[in-house]
Each structure stands twice: as structure tokens, then as C-alpha cells.
Design brief:
Strand content: over 45%
Number of helices: 1
Distance between the termini: 26 Å
Strand order of the largest sheet: 1-2-3-4-5-6-7-8
Number of strands: 16
Mean pLDDT: 83
Number of domains: 2
């Protein structure tokens, strides 16, 4: 799956690939760097999600990270020991990459990764603002709030709560 993570105003495209033969093992790539990581959820509570991250290979290292949703659109606070950063996840990503936007057509919001739809926050005919939450998809035990790429009217929402979706599946269209 491809995600965009912005920290301190710098956006990075990050690719995360799961190893089907080893649960929890991920290959994470950004800016020409690739790391193999073993990632496990240690705890999920009202304080967020505590992750155990072990970098595998010659430069082996182990860290725990607590990820806490801030309630602001796409913003997560990440605590790595004494270091605390705010990360905007998929903040500027517009699924479908706005081919329709340039021509004034519908904007398509698609699933950035395989997962399960846990909340549908809009219905066809609803007026929405840019970056307004539309659908929440759970993937890798994390909830991802997906937002409107622009203001407009919801044309369609072809998913329902509880539905499993593949990466690239249409979640909503905005006219």
C-alpha cells in the first residue's frame, strides 16, 4: 500500500508491503530507503495504539511507538521515547489523482489499502467541505479516516459498514 506521511511540513510517499509468509513482517520504503520491520500491536486503549517495531537485518533496532489520534483530520501524534511528532497521514492524497478534477468532473475517493469499512459518515446528496471525513477504513489494526478531496456534493457511496475492500476500491465520489 502507498501512503503519504507529512512531518514538520515535509511530505513523503511511503510504501508498505506485507510479507505473506511472515505475519507482522513489513517492507517499508521511502526516499530510496527500504527497511524490513517486524511490527506488532502491543496494546490498544483510550491512550491510542502501542506498537512494537523491530528493524530486521544488519542494522537491527527495536522501538516502541504510541500512536494517538488527535481528533484533527488525519493528524496522529507519534511518541517514540522522548520524541513526540505530529504526523499527517494521507493529508494531501487524493485517490484517483484528480484526473476528473482538472476537467471539472467527479473526484473519486478510493481505498488506499485493503481493509474493512468501519464507518460511513456521509450519504449521496450530502454537501461536504474539502478534507471533511467521509469514510473510516481499518487496516493493520489502525483506523484511517479518509477525507473529501474537495468541497462538493456526494454523488455516490458504494460501500457499507462492515464491508471488506481492496486497495483502489471506490469509497465515494464527489461532484
Amino acid at each position: 500500500m502507498r501512503i503519504e506521511i507529512e512531518i514538520d511540513g515535509k511530505a513523503r510517499d511511503v510504501t508498505v508491503e506485507a510479507d505473506a509468509t511472515r505475519p507482522g513482517r513489513l517492507r517499508v520504503s521511502w526516499d530510496g530507503t527500504t527497511r524490513e520491520v517486524d511490527a506488532r500491536v502491543v496494546e490498544r486503549d483510550r491512550h491510542g495504539v502501542l506498537l512494537s517495531l523491530v528493524q530486521v537485518g544488519a542494522a537491527a533496532a527495536s522501538r516502541q511507538a504510541r500512536c494517538v489520534a488527535t481528533g484533527r483530520n488525519g493528524v496522529t501524534t507519534v511518541h517514540l521515547g522522548d520524541v513526540v511528532v505530529e504526523a499527517v497521514i494521507n493529508g494531501r492524497r487524493v485517490a484517483g489523482e484528480a484526473a476528473g478534477d482538472a476537467a471539472g468532473g467527479a473526484s473519486r475517493l478510493t481505498a488506499p489499502m485493503p481493509g474493512k469499512v468501519v464507518r460511513v459518515l456521509v450519504a449521496p446528496g450530502d454537501q461536504v467541505e474539502a478534507r471533511q471525513p467521509l469514510v473510516v477504513v481499518e487496516a493493520m489494526k489502525m483506523e484511517n479516516e479518509l477525507t473529501a478531496p474537495r468541497a462538493g456534493t456526494v454523488a455516490e457511496v458504494p460501500v457499507t459498514e462492515g464491508m471488506s475492500v481492496e486497495a483502489g476500491r471506490l469509497l465515494a465520489a464527489i461532484e
